[in-house]
Design a protein that fits this description.
heterodimer; A: mainly alpha; 4 helices; B: alpha/beta; Amidase signature (AS) enzymes; 15 helices; 37% helix
Protein backbone atom coordinates (compact mmCIF):
# COMPACT_ATOMS: atom_id res chain seq x y z
CA UNK A 1 0.00 0.00 0.00
CA UNK A 2 1.34 3.40 -1.00
CA UNK A 3 1.96 6.02 1.66
CA UNK A 4 2.43 9.74 1.17
CA UNK A 5 4.01 12.45 3.25
CA UNK A 6 0.82 13.16 5.18
CA UNK A 7 0.75 9.51 6.32
CA UNK A 8 4.27 9.86 7.70
CA UNK A 9 3.20 13.03 9.54
CA UNK A 10 0.19 11.19 10.96
CA UNK A 11 2.23 8.18 12.12
CA UNK A 12 4.89 10.48 13.60
CA UNK A 13 2.15 12.31 15.51
CA UNK A 14 0.71 9.02 16.83
CA UNK A 15 4.22 8.02 17.95
CA UNK A 16 4.83 11.52 19.39
CA UNK A 17 8.05 11.89 17.46
CA UNK A 18 9.07 15.14 15.86
CA UNK A 19 10.36 14.49 12.33
CA UNK A 20 12.15 17.41 10.71
CA UNK A 21 10.54 18.56 7.47
CA UNK A 22 13.69 17.82 5.44
CA UNK A 23 13.80 14.22 6.76
CA UNK A 24 10.19 13.29 5.97
CA UNK A 25 10.92 12.20 2.41
CA UNK A 26 13.67 9.80 3.50
CA UNK A 27 11.43 8.25 6.16
CA UNK A 28 8.63 7.95 3.59
CA UNK A 29 10.92 6.06 1.21
CA UNK A 30 12.31 3.75 3.91
CA UNK A 31 8.93 2.96 5.42
CA UNK A 32 7.40 2.36 2.00
CA UNK A 33 10.13 -0.14 1.11
CA UNK A 34 9.80 -1.83 4.50
CA UNK A 35 6.03 -2.15 4.03
CA UNK A 36 6.76 -3.64 0.58
CA UNK A 37 8.65 -6.39 2.39
CA UNK A 38 5.42 -7.35 4.12
CA UNK A 39 3.48 -8.02 0.91
CA UNK A 40 4.78 -11.60 0.63
CA UNK A 41 2.96 -12.39 3.89
CA UNK A 42 -0.40 -11.63 2.37
CA UNK A 43 -0.02 -14.51 -0.09
CA UNK A 44 0.10 -17.04 2.76
CA UNK A 45 -3.17 -18.65 3.80
CA UNK A 46 -3.41 -18.28 7.57
CA UNK A 47 -7.10 -19.15 7.96
CA UNK A 48 -7.56 -20.94 11.30
CA UNK A 49 -3.93 -20.32 12.34
CA UNK A 50 -3.85 -19.14 15.95
CA UNK A 51 -1.60 -16.04 16.36
CA UNK A 52 1.52 -16.75 18.42
CA UNK A 53 2.20 -14.06 21.03
CA UNK A 54 4.54 -16.02 23.30
CA UNK A 55 6.84 -18.83 22.11
CA UNK A 56 5.61 -21.20 24.83
CA UNK A 57 2.03 -19.93 24.78
CA UNK A 58 2.54 -19.06 28.45
CA UNK A 59 -0.13 -17.26 30.39
CA UNK A 60 0.39 -14.42 32.82
CA UNK A 61 1.86 -15.68 36.06
CA UNK A 62 0.11 -14.24 39.12
CA UNK A 63 1.44 -13.64 42.62
CA UNK A 64 -0.12 -13.06 46.00
CA UNK A 65 -1.27 -9.48 46.54
CA UNK A 66 1.43 -8.72 49.11
CA UNK A 67 3.63 -5.67 49.49
CA UNK A 68 7.06 -6.83 48.36
CA UNK A 69 8.80 -3.60 47.39
CA UNK A 70 9.66 -0.76 49.69
CA UNK A 71 9.16 2.85 48.68
CA UNK A 72 12.22 4.07 46.77
CA UNK A 73 10.85 7.37 45.53
CA UNK A 74 13.98 9.42 46.20
CA UNK A 75 16.26 6.91 44.53
CA UNK A 76 14.05 6.51 41.49
CA UNK A 77 13.47 10.25 41.14
CA UNK A 78 17.20 10.92 41.32
CA UNK A 79 17.37 10.34 37.55
CA UNK A 80 14.33 12.49 36.65
CA UNK A 81 14.77 15.61 34.48
CA UNK A 82 12.70 17.81 36.84
CA UNK A 83 11.09 17.11 40.22
CA UNK A 84 9.67 19.15 43.09
CA UNK A 85 8.33 17.93 46.44
CA UNK A 86 8.47 14.33 45.23
CA UNK A 87 6.50 15.10 42.06
CA UNK A 88 7.61 14.90 38.42
CA UNK A 89 7.40 18.31 36.76
CA UNK A 90 6.08 18.75 33.21
CA UNK A 91 5.01 21.82 31.24
CA UNK A 92 1.69 23.31 32.36
CA UNK A 93 -1.25 21.21 31.15
CA UNK A 94 -4.24 23.10 32.64
CA UNK A 95 -4.48 26.91 32.78
CA UNK B 1 47.56 -13.89 29.49
CA UNK B 2 45.06 -12.14 27.21
CA UNK B 3 44.68 -15.25 25.08
CA UNK B 4 43.50 -17.32 28.04
CA UNK B 5 39.96 -18.64 28.20
CA UNK B 6 37.68 -18.11 31.19
CA UNK B 7 38.24 -21.77 32.13
CA UNK B 8 42.02 -21.23 32.12
CA UNK B 9 41.75 -18.01 34.13
CA UNK B 10 39.47 -19.74 36.62
CA UNK B 11 42.06 -22.50 37.03
CA UNK B 12 44.89 -19.97 37.45
CA UNK B 13 42.96 -18.10 40.14
CA UNK B 14 42.31 -21.35 41.95
CA UNK B 15 45.95 -22.47 41.95
CA UNK B 16 47.21 -19.00 42.86
CA UNK B 17 49.11 -18.53 39.59
CA UNK B 18 47.72 -14.98 39.58
CA UNK B 19 45.14 -12.98 41.51
CA UNK B 20 41.93 -11.43 40.30
CA UNK B 21 43.40 -8.00 41.10
CA UNK B 22 46.36 -8.76 38.80
CA UNK B 23 44.35 -9.93 35.83
CA UNK B 24 41.72 -7.22 36.29
CA UNK B 25 44.46 -4.54 36.33
CA UNK B 26 45.97 -6.07 33.17
CA UNK B 27 42.65 -6.03 31.34
CA UNK B 28 41.93 -2.44 32.42
CA UNK B 29 45.36 -1.36 31.18
CA UNK B 30 44.79 -3.21 27.92
CA UNK B 31 41.43 -1.49 27.42
CA UNK B 32 43.00 1.91 28.13
CA UNK B 33 45.83 1.23 25.67
CA UNK B 34 43.93 -0.49 22.87
CA UNK B 35 40.24 0.35 22.79
CA UNK B 36 40.62 3.62 20.88
CA UNK B 37 41.15 1.33 17.85
CA UNK B 38 37.87 -0.55 18.36
CA UNK B 39 35.51 1.69 20.39
CA UNK B 40 34.10 -1.45 21.99
CA UNK B 41 33.41 0.12 25.40
CA UNK B 42 31.02 2.98 26.15
CA UNK B 43 31.93 3.14 29.84
CA UNK B 44 34.90 1.55 31.63
CA UNK B 45 34.60 1.20 35.42
CA UNK B 46 38.17 0.75 36.74
CA UNK B 47 37.50 1.66 40.38
CA UNK B 48 34.49 -0.61 40.65
CA UNK B 49 36.40 -3.41 38.89
CA UNK B 50 39.42 -3.17 41.22
CA UNK B 51 37.20 -3.12 44.32
CA UNK B 52 35.31 -6.18 43.07
CA UNK B 53 38.59 -7.95 42.24
CA UNK B 54 39.97 -7.26 45.73
CA UNK B 55 36.84 -8.72 47.34
CA UNK B 56 37.00 -11.71 44.97
CA UNK B 57 40.61 -12.37 45.96
CA UNK B 58 39.54 -12.54 49.60
CA UNK B 59 36.86 -15.10 48.77
CA UNK B 60 39.31 -17.13 46.68
CA UNK B 61 41.84 -16.97 49.53
CA UNK B 62 39.22 -18.26 51.95
CA UNK B 63 38.56 -21.21 49.65
CA UNK B 64 34.95 -20.28 48.89
CA UNK B 65 35.29 -19.46 45.21
CA UNK B 66 32.74 -20.17 42.48
CA UNK B 67 34.22 -21.02 39.07
CA UNK B 68 33.39 -17.44 37.93
CA UNK B 69 34.71 -15.68 41.07
CA UNK B 70 37.28 -13.06 40.19
CA UNK B 71 36.81 -13.42 36.41
CA UNK B 72 36.68 -9.99 34.75
CA UNK B 73 33.93 -9.68 32.14
CA UNK B 74 32.23 -6.92 30.18
CA UNK B 75 28.50 -6.25 30.02
CA UNK B 76 26.49 -4.97 27.11
CA UNK B 77 25.32 -1.46 27.96
CA UNK B 78 21.72 -2.65 27.88
CA UNK B 79 21.87 -4.18 31.39
CA UNK B 80 21.11 -1.77 34.21
CA UNK B 81 24.09 -1.49 36.57
CA UNK B 82 23.43 0.40 39.77
CA UNK B 83 25.38 3.65 40.01
CA UNK B 84 26.81 3.29 36.49
CA UNK B 85 25.59 4.95 33.31
CA UNK B 86 23.42 2.55 31.32
CA UNK B 87 22.90 4.11 27.90
CA UNK B 88 21.56 1.37 25.59
CA UNK B 89 23.72 3.13 22.98
CA UNK B 90 21.29 6.04 22.90
CA UNK B 91 21.45 9.79 23.42
CA UNK B 92 18.13 9.27 25.20
CA UNK B 93 19.92 7.56 28.10
CA UNK B 94 23.30 9.31 27.88
CA UNK B 95 22.66 10.82 31.34
CA UNK B 96 20.96 7.75 32.86
CA UNK B 97 22.64 6.36 35.97
CA UNK B 98 20.74 3.15 36.67
CA UNK B 99 19.21 3.14 40.17
CA UNK B 100 19.11 -0.67 40.31
CA UNK B 101 20.81 -3.78 38.91
CA UNK B 102 19.54 -6.10 36.20
CA UNK B 103 19.05 -9.63 37.54
CA UNK B 104 22.00 -10.98 35.56
CA UNK B 105 24.23 -8.26 37.07
CA UNK B 106 23.03 -9.33 40.54
CA UNK B 107 23.82 -12.93 39.65
CA UNK B 108 27.38 -12.13 38.51
CA UNK B 109 27.81 -9.98 41.64
CA UNK B 110 26.62 -12.88 43.80
CA UNK B 111 29.42 -15.14 42.49
CA UNK B 112 31.82 -12.17 42.57
CA UNK B 113 32.68 -11.90 38.91
CA UNK B 114 34.33 -8.57 38.10
CA UNK B 115 32.71 -6.04 35.77
CA UNK B 116 35.22 -4.17 33.58
CA UNK B 117 32.60 -1.89 32.09
CA UNK B 118 29.77 -1.49 29.59
CA UNK B 119 30.11 -2.32 25.92
CA UNK B 120 29.00 -0.48 22.81
CA UNK B 121 25.86 -1.56 20.96
CA UNK B 122 23.37 -0.53 18.32
CA UNK B 123 20.93 1.95 19.87
CA UNK B 124 18.32 0.01 21.86
CA UNK B 125 19.75 -3.16 20.24
CA UNK B 126 18.31 -2.20 16.84
CA UNK B 127 20.86 -3.05 14.20
CA UNK B 128 23.14 -5.71 12.73
CA UNK B 129 26.39 -3.75 12.45
CA UNK B 130 26.80 -1.61 15.59
CA UNK B 131 26.71 1.45 13.35
CA UNK B 132 23.51 2.71 14.98
CA UNK B 133 25.21 3.69 18.24
CA UNK B 134 25.13 7.25 19.61
CA UNK B 135 28.71 6.51 20.71
CA UNK B 136 29.95 5.68 17.23
CA UNK B 137 30.62 2.56 15.19
CA UNK B 138 32.75 -0.33 16.50
CA UNK B 139 35.62 -1.77 14.46
CA UNK B 140 35.95 -5.52 14.01
CA UNK B 141 39.45 -6.60 15.12
CA UNK B 142 39.47 -8.99 12.15
CA UNK B 143 39.50 -6.29 9.51
CA UNK B 144 40.05 -2.55 9.21
CA UNK B 145 36.78 -0.79 8.53
CA UNK B 146 34.78 -4.00 8.96
CA UNK B 147 31.73 -4.11 11.22
CA UNK B 148 31.75 -6.51 14.19
CA UNK B 149 28.06 -7.24 13.64
CA UNK B 150 25.31 -6.14 15.95
CA UNK B 151 23.59 -5.33 18.03
CA UNK B 152 26.05 -6.76 20.60
CA UNK B 153 28.97 -5.50 18.47
CA UNK B 154 30.94 -3.98 21.36
CA UNK B 155 30.62 -7.17 23.42
CA UNK B 156 31.98 -9.22 20.50
CA UNK B 157 34.75 -6.80 19.51
CA UNK B 158 35.95 -6.52 23.14
CA UNK B 159 36.40 -10.29 23.43
CA UNK B 160 37.86 -10.66 19.92
CA UNK B 161 40.33 -7.85 20.68
CA UNK B 162 41.23 -9.63 23.95
CA UNK B 163 40.06 -6.71 26.09
CA UNK B 164 37.87 -9.10 28.10
CA UNK B 165 37.76 -12.91 28.24
CA UNK B 166 33.97 -12.97 27.95
CA UNK B 167 31.00 -10.65 27.76
CA UNK B 168 27.24 -10.56 27.98
CA UNK B 169 25.00 -9.76 25.05
CA UNK B 170 21.36 -9.84 24.08
CA UNK B 171 19.75 -11.44 21.05
CA UNK B 172 16.38 -10.30 19.69
CA UNK B 173 16.93 -11.41 16.09
CA UNK B 174 20.55 -12.58 15.99
CA UNK B 175 22.35 -9.95 18.06
CA UNK B 176 24.55 -12.48 19.92
CA UNK B 177 25.03 -15.11 17.19
CA UNK B 178 25.75 -12.76 14.26
CA UNK B 179 28.46 -10.68 16.03
CA UNK B 180 29.98 -13.90 17.41
CA UNK B 181 30.12 -15.30 13.86
CA UNK B 182 31.71 -12.14 12.45
CA UNK B 183 34.44 -12.00 15.13
CA UNK B 184 35.36 -15.72 15.41
CA UNK B 185 33.69 -16.18 18.79
CA UNK B 186 31.22 -18.53 20.44
CA UNK B 187 27.83 -17.10 21.35
CA UNK B 188 24.63 -18.64 22.62
CA UNK B 189 21.09 -17.31 22.60
CA UNK B 190 19.25 -19.40 25.18
CA UNK B 191 15.61 -20.48 25.01
CA UNK B 192 13.20 -17.57 25.45
CA UNK B 193 12.67 -17.10 29.20
CA UNK B 194 15.80 -19.06 30.27
CA UNK B 195 17.68 -15.89 31.34
CA UNK B 196 15.88 -13.11 33.19
CA UNK B 197 14.99 -9.97 31.25
CA UNK B 198 14.63 -7.89 34.43
CA UNK B 199 16.74 -4.74 34.16
CA UNK B 200 17.59 -5.46 30.53
CA UNK B 201 16.35 -2.45 28.57
CA UNK B 202 13.48 -3.78 26.48
CA UNK B 203 13.43 -3.84 22.68
CA UNK B 204 10.92 -6.54 21.67
CA UNK B 205 9.79 -8.31 24.82
CA UNK B 206 8.53 -11.55 23.26
CA UNK B 207 11.87 -12.04 21.46
CA UNK B 208 14.60 -10.56 23.72
CA UNK B 209 16.96 -12.99 25.41
CA UNK B 210 20.37 -12.53 27.05
CA UNK B 211 23.40 -14.79 26.71
CA UNK B 212 27.21 -14.89 26.74
CA UNK B 213 29.82 -14.23 24.05
CA UNK B 214 33.08 -16.07 24.70
CA UNK B 215 36.09 -17.73 23.07
CA UNK B 216 34.86 -21.28 23.68
CA UNK B 217 31.72 -23.30 24.31
CA UNK B 218 33.12 -24.30 27.69
CA UNK B 219 33.38 -20.62 28.68
CA UNK B 220 29.85 -19.99 27.43
CA UNK B 221 28.66 -22.88 29.61
CA UNK B 222 30.42 -21.38 32.62
CA UNK B 223 28.81 -17.97 32.09
CA UNK B 224 25.38 -19.40 31.31
CA UNK B 225 25.54 -21.38 34.55
CA UNK B 226 25.52 -18.01 36.33
CA UNK B 227 22.98 -16.27 34.09
CA UNK B 228 20.22 -18.89 33.70
CA UNK B 229 17.32 -19.43 36.06
CA UNK B 230 13.85 -18.42 37.12
CA UNK B 231 13.30 -14.82 38.22
CA UNK B 232 10.06 -13.71 39.84
CA UNK B 233 10.79 -10.17 38.60
CA UNK B 234 10.44 -11.24 34.94
CA UNK B 235 6.85 -12.15 34.09
CA UNK B 236 7.92 -14.43 31.24
CA UNK B 237 10.79 -16.14 33.08
CA UNK B 238 10.80 -19.93 32.59
CA UNK B 239 10.29 -22.12 35.66
CA UNK B 240 11.92 -25.15 34.01
CA UNK B 241 14.82 -26.61 36.05
CA UNK B 242 18.29 -25.34 35.07
CA UNK B 243 20.93 -27.84 33.92
CA UNK B 244 24.63 -27.67 34.82
CA UNK B 245 25.85 -26.64 31.39
CA UNK B 246 29.44 -27.74 32.05
CA UNK B 247 28.46 -31.25 33.19
CA UNK B 248 27.97 -32.91 29.81
CA UNK B 249 30.36 -30.97 27.58
CA UNK B 250 32.40 -34.08 26.79
CA UNK B 251 29.53 -36.42 25.98
CA UNK B 252 30.35 -38.30 22.72
CA UNK B 253 28.33 -37.31 19.66
CA UNK B 254 27.95 -40.80 18.19
CA UNK B 255 24.46 -41.14 16.73
CA UNK B 256 23.69 -37.41 16.93
CA UNK B 257 21.12 -36.59 14.24
CA UNK B 258 21.83 -33.26 12.54
CA UNK B 259 19.14 -31.67 10.38
CA UNK B 260 20.20 -29.46 7.47
CA UNK B 261 17.41 -27.11 6.34
CA UNK B 262 17.60 -26.83 2.58
CA UNK B 263 16.32 -23.23 2.86
CA UNK B 264 19.53 -22.30 4.75
CA UNK B 265 21.71 -23.43 1.84
CA UNK B 266 19.93 -21.53 -0.92
CA UNK B 267 21.27 -19.17 -3.57
CA UNK B 268 21.55 -16.21 -1.16
CA UNK B 269 24.36 -17.95 0.69
CA UNK B 270 27.93 -16.97 -0.15
CA UNK B 271 29.32 -20.19 -1.76
CA UNK B 272 32.56 -19.98 0.23
CA UNK B 273 30.57 -19.83 3.47
CA UNK B 274 28.58 -22.84 2.30
CA UNK B 275 31.89 -24.66 1.78
CA UNK B 276 33.12 -23.84 5.31
CA UNK B 277 29.84 -25.06 6.77
CA UNK B 278 30.05 -28.27 4.71
CA UNK B 279 33.55 -28.91 6.05
CA UNK B 280 32.27 -28.47 9.60
CA UNK B 281 29.50 -30.97 8.88
CA UNK B 282 32.09 -33.47 7.64
CA UNK B 283 33.89 -33.01 10.96
CA UNK B 284 30.65 -33.84 12.75
CA UNK B 285 30.26 -36.97 10.63
CA UNK B 286 33.76 -37.99 11.69
CA UNK B 287 32.60 -37.55 15.30
CA UNK B 288 29.80 -40.03 14.63
CA UNK B 289 26.91 -37.74 13.76
CA UNK B 290 24.37 -38.45 11.01
CA UNK B 291 23.22 -35.79 8.56
CA UNK B 292 19.69 -35.48 7.25
CA UNK B 293 18.16 -32.92 4.91
CA UNK B 294 15.11 -31.22 6.39
CA UNK B 295 12.86 -28.37 5.34
CA UNK B 296 11.82 -25.21 7.17
CA UNK B 297 9.48 -24.01 4.41
CA UNK B 298 8.52 -20.68 5.99
CA UNK B 299 12.09 -19.43 6.54
CA UNK B 300 11.78 -16.57 4.04
CA UNK B 301 8.72 -15.27 5.88
CA UNK B 302 10.70 -14.77 9.07
CA UNK B 303 12.00 -11.45 7.74
CA UNK B 304 8.61 -9.76 7.23
CA UNK B 305 7.12 -11.36 10.36
CA UNK B 306 10.06 -10.23 12.47
CA UNK B 307 10.16 -6.72 11.03
CA UNK B 308 6.52 -6.26 12.01
CA UNK B 309 6.53 -7.93 15.43
CA UNK B 310 9.82 -6.45 16.67
CA UNK B 311 9.03 -2.83 15.67
CA UNK B 312 5.46 -3.17 16.98
CA UNK B 313 6.70 -4.30 20.38
CA UNK B 314 9.46 -1.67 20.28
CA UNK B 315 6.98 1.13 19.54
CA UNK B 316 5.11 0.14 22.69
CA UNK B 317 8.20 -0.46 24.88
CA UNK B 318 9.90 2.76 23.85
CA UNK B 319 6.86 4.90 24.62
CA UNK B 320 8.31 5.16 28.15
CA UNK B 321 10.99 7.54 26.85
CA UNK B 322 8.94 10.72 27.09
CA UNK B 323 11.22 13.10 29.00
CA UNK B 324 9.23 12.83 32.23
CA UNK B 325 10.74 10.25 34.57
CA UNK B 326 14.31 9.64 33.35
CA UNK B 327 16.61 10.19 30.43
CA UNK B 328 16.81 13.04 27.95
CA UNK B 329 14.40 15.99 27.91
CA UNK B 330 14.43 18.65 25.18
CA UNK B 331 15.23 22.30 26.02
CA UNK B 332 12.43 24.76 26.79
CA UNK B 333 9.32 22.81 25.78
CA UNK B 334 6.34 25.09 25.10
CA UNK B 335 3.77 22.49 26.17
CA UNK B 336 3.48 18.79 27.00
CA UNK B 337 3.05 17.61 23.41
CA UNK B 338 6.01 19.69 22.26
CA UNK B 339 8.06 18.13 25.07
CA UNK B 340 7.14 14.57 24.08
CA UNK B 341 7.75 15.13 20.38
CA UNK B 342 11.01 17.03 20.56
CA UNK B 343 12.40 14.83 23.36
CA UNK B 344 11.78 11.74 21.24
CA UNK B 345 12.73 13.40 17.94
CA UNK B 346 16.07 14.59 19.37
CA UNK B 347 16.78 11.68 21.74
CA UNK B 348 16.31 8.75 19.33
CA UNK B 349 18.53 7.99 16.34
CA UNK B 350 17.32 7.38 12.79
CA UNK B 351 16.92 3.58 12.84
CA UNK B 352 15.10 3.65 16.18
CA UNK B 353 12.70 6.31 14.88
CA UNK B 354 12.19 4.31 11.70
CA UNK B 355 11.24 1.19 13.66
CA UNK B 356 8.97 3.07 16.05
CA UNK B 357 7.17 4.58 13.04
CA UNK B 358 6.80 1.19 11.33
CA UNK B 359 5.58 -0.39 14.57
CA UNK B 360 3.15 2.43 15.25
CA UNK B 361 1.74 2.06 11.75
CA UNK B 362 1.43 -1.74 12.06
CA UNK B 363 -0.52 -1.35 15.31
CA UNK B 364 -2.68 1.58 14.19
CA UNK B 365 -6.41 1.39 13.71
CA UNK B 366 -7.42 -0.43 10.54
CA UNK B 367 -4.03 -2.08 9.94
CA UNK B 368 -3.68 -4.31 12.99
CA UNK B 369 -5.16 -7.44 11.37
CA UNK B 370 -3.30 -7.06 8.08
CA UNK B 371 0.08 -6.60 9.73
CA UNK B 372 0.45 -7.52 13.39
CA UNK B 373 -2.06 -10.35 13.58
CA UNK B 374 -0.92 -11.76 10.24
CA UNK B 375 2.70 -11.66 11.40
CA UNK B 376 1.81 -13.51 14.59
CA UNK B 377 -0.01 -16.19 12.58
CA UNK B 378 3.06 -16.60 10.40
CA UNK B 379 5.12 -16.75 13.57
CA UNK B 380 3.16 -19.87 14.54
CA UNK B 381 3.81 -21.44 11.13
CA UNK B 382 7.54 -20.78 11.56
CA UNK B 383 7.46 -22.34 15.02
CA UNK B 384 5.60 -25.38 13.68
CA UNK B 385 8.31 -25.89 11.04
CA UNK B 386 10.90 -26.18 13.81
CA UNK B 387 8.74 -28.34 16.07
CA UNK B 388 8.16 -30.79 13.20
CA UNK B 389 11.82 -30.85 12.20
CA UNK B 390 13.02 -31.39 15.77
CA UNK B 391 10.88 -34.53 16.02
CA UNK B 392 13.22 -36.13 13.49
CA UNK B 393 16.62 -34.65 14.41
CA UNK B 394 18.47 -33.67 17.60
CA UNK B 395 19.93 -30.40 16.37
CA UNK B 396 19.72 -28.27 13.24
CA UNK B 397 22.81 -26.75 11.63
CA UNK B 398 23.55 -24.17 8.99
CA UNK B 399 25.36 -20.89 8.48
CA UNK B 400 24.90 -18.07 11.02
CA UNK B 401 25.14 -15.30 8.42
CA UNK B 402 24.88 -15.19 4.61
CA UNK B 403 28.30 -13.48 4.28
CA UNK B 404 31.32 -12.53 6.40
CA UNK B 405 31.83 -9.11 8.05
CA UNK B 406 31.00 -6.28 5.66
CA UNK B 407 32.56 -2.82 5.50
CA UNK B 408 31.48 0.02 7.77
CA UNK B 409 29.03 2.12 5.74
CA UNK B 410 28.40 -0.60 3.14
CA UNK B 411 24.80 -1.30 4.12
CA UNK B 412 23.68 1.87 5.87
CA UNK B 413 21.92 3.38 2.85
CA UNK B 414 19.26 0.70 2.55
CA UNK B 415 17.67 -0.65 5.74
CA UNK B 416 16.28 -3.73 3.91
CA UNK B 417 19.78 -4.72 2.79
CA UNK B 418 20.81 -4.65 6.46
CA UNK B 419 17.71 -6.62 7.55
CA UNK B 420 18.67 -9.47 5.18
CA UNK B 421 21.81 -10.01 7.27
CA UNK B 422 19.52 -11.72 9.83
CA UNK B 423 17.85 -14.22 7.49
CA UNK B 424 19.23 -17.32 9.28
CA UNK B 425 18.97 -16.04 12.83
CA UNK B 426 15.55 -14.35 13.12
CA UNK B 427 13.41 -17.46 12.88
CA UNK B 428 14.78 -18.86 16.16
CA UNK B 429 13.75 -15.80 18.11
CA UNK B 430 10.27 -16.00 16.58
CA UNK B 431 10.07 -19.66 17.65
CA UNK B 432 11.76 -19.00 21.03
CA UNK B 433 14.35 -21.73 20.44
CA UNK B 434 17.99 -21.70 21.61
CA UNK B 435 20.80 -21.28 19.10
CA UNK B 436 24.56 -20.88 18.99
CA UNK B 437 27.24 -19.71 16.67
CA UNK B 438 30.71 -21.31 16.69
CA UNK B 439 33.72 -20.50 14.49
CA UNK B 440 34.11 -22.88 11.53
CA UNK B 441 36.71 -21.27 9.30
CA UNK B 442 37.42 -18.14 7.32
CA UNK B 443 36.58 -16.60 3.98
CA UNK B 444 39.05 -13.99 2.70
CA UNK B 445 40.61 -13.96 6.18
CA UNK B 446 37.27 -13.09 7.80
CA UNK B 447 35.60 -15.49 10.26
CA UNK B 448 32.62 -17.68 9.44
CA UNK B 449 30.10 -18.98 11.98
CA UNK B 450 28.32 -22.33 12.13
CA UNK B 451 24.86 -22.01 13.63
CA UNK B 452 23.59 -24.82 15.87
CA UNK B 453 19.91 -24.85 16.80
CA UNK B 454 18.32 -27.06 19.44
CA UNK B 455 15.01 -27.85 21.03
CA UNK B 456 13.49 -25.81 23.86
CA UNK B 457 15.78 -25.80 26.94
CA UNK B 458 18.38 -27.96 25.15
CA UNK B 459 21.23 -25.52 25.94
CA UNK B 460 23.18 -28.31 27.63
CA UNK B 461 23.05 -30.39 24.45
CA UNK B 462 23.97 -27.43 22.22
CA UNK B 463 27.00 -26.57 24.33
CA UNK B 464 28.06 -30.22 24.28
CA UNK B 465 27.73 -30.34 20.48
CA UNK B 466 29.74 -27.11 20.17
CA UNK B 467 32.39 -28.18 22.67
CA UNK B 468 33.08 -31.52 20.97
CA UNK B 469 33.56 -29.66 17.66
CA UNK B 470 36.04 -27.35 19.38
CA UNK B 471 37.92 -30.36 20.79
CA UNK B 472 38.35 -31.64 17.23
CA UNK B 473 39.09 -28.32 15.46
CA UNK B 474 41.12 -25.20 16.16
CA UNK B 475 39.14 -22.51 14.35
CA UNK B 476 38.02 -21.01 17.66
CA UNK B 477 41.62 -20.62 18.89
CA UNK B 478 42.58 -18.39 15.98
CA UNK B 479 42.86 -14.73 16.78
CA UNK B 480 42.54 -11.56 14.76
CA UNK B 481 45.66 -10.51 12.81
CA UNK B 482 48.14 -8.62 14.99
CA UNK B 483 46.99 -10.13 18.29
Amino acid sequence: MALDKSDVDKIAHLARINIEEQDTQAYLQNITSILGLFDQMQEVDTTDVEPLAHPMDAIQRLRADDITEKNQRELLQSVAPAIEDGLFLVPKVID
Amino acid sequence: MFSKTIAQLSQGLKTGEFSSSEITRSYLDQIAAQDSKYNSFITVTPELAMAQAKAADETIGAGNAHAMTGIPIAHKDIFCTKGVRTSAGSKMLDNFIAPYNATIIEKFNAVQSVSLGKTNMDEFAMGSSNENSYYGAVTNPWGDNRVPGGSSGGSAAAVAAQLAPGSTGTDTGGSIRQPAALTNLTGIKPTYGRVSRFGMIAFASSLDQAGPITKTAEDAAMMLNVMAGFDAKDSTSAQTAVDDYTATLNQPLKGLKIGLPKEFFSADLNPQIAERVQSALKEYQALGAELKEISLPNTALSIPAYYIIAPAEASSNLSRFDGVKFGYRCENPVDLEDMYKRTRGEGFGTEVKRRILVGTYALSEGFYDAYYKKAQQIRRLIQQDFVNALKEVDVIMGPTTPQPAFKIGEKTADPIDMYMEDIYTLSLNLAGLPGMSVPCGQVDDLPVGLQIIGNYFAEQRLLNVAHMFQQATDWHTQTAPGL
